[in-house]
Amino acid sequence: MVIRGESGTGKELAARQLHRASRRSGAPFLAVNCAALSETLVLSELFGHARGAFTGADRERKGVFETAHGGTVLLDEIGDLPARAQGMLLRVLQEGEIVRVGESEPRRVNVRVLAATHRDLARMVEEGTFRSDLYFRLRGGSVELPPLRDRGDDVIRLAEHFLRRLRNDRSNRSDRSASLSGAVRASLLAHRWPGNVRELQNVMSLATTLAGEGPIEPEHLELPGSGDSPRGSYHRQIDDLRRHLVGDALARYPNNFSEAARWLGVSRQTLSYLMRQFGIDGNGKVQGM
Fold it and tell me: Where are the domains of the chain?
């Protein structure tokens, strides 16, 4: 099955819900961001490797498909999966087998594979950058998640949900009465939300910090047109700090996303999101510079 939608629409959340509602819910759910890994690393991450298979492989390692046996694997941004990995994934779907990097004997696996992407896979097939047999195998089921700008009043419901959760977490008490003023609602509805639900969550987190215990005002949203001043220096300074920290972590651990994420104290998914947001490569360099 393919879950399609713009970045930030909740593709991984939808995949988790599908897993929880299935007979595989008692087994692992594992997600891999294909766009955040080099070809060598994505092969090792998905299929595992033998000891000595490549430089730094000092021990054998299970891949995601073996680790998630009986459960579900989400391949996020599958459009970025390298050609060799596409062929190996097709074998998983057709034969239920994987071959670890550096080995020749197949191993049996039993997993459900979900794929997520914001890219047009049909066009990629036409351009020759995505295997047609894999595409037709995956497209047996398809779910399209609409962008937040097309979901009407959902933006208000989600904003109030995030507000309640953020304030409950900070006060350690339950407050279900959190609401937004008419001016704030108007600002939220007027914004186009290119980052979708993820962007809304970040905006509400910042607004809650700026407002403290007081009501959320339009200027706390830091959205274009939501206050008398443009996007403030506070937000830019926070982004600059995050960019610097992510760059330092990846410079310290080049292309070792697990160690870089551990050093930052975040998940690998969060690190992948920050790398895409700031255009940082696996060596900690800003792309294009």
Answer: 2-144, 148-231, 234-278
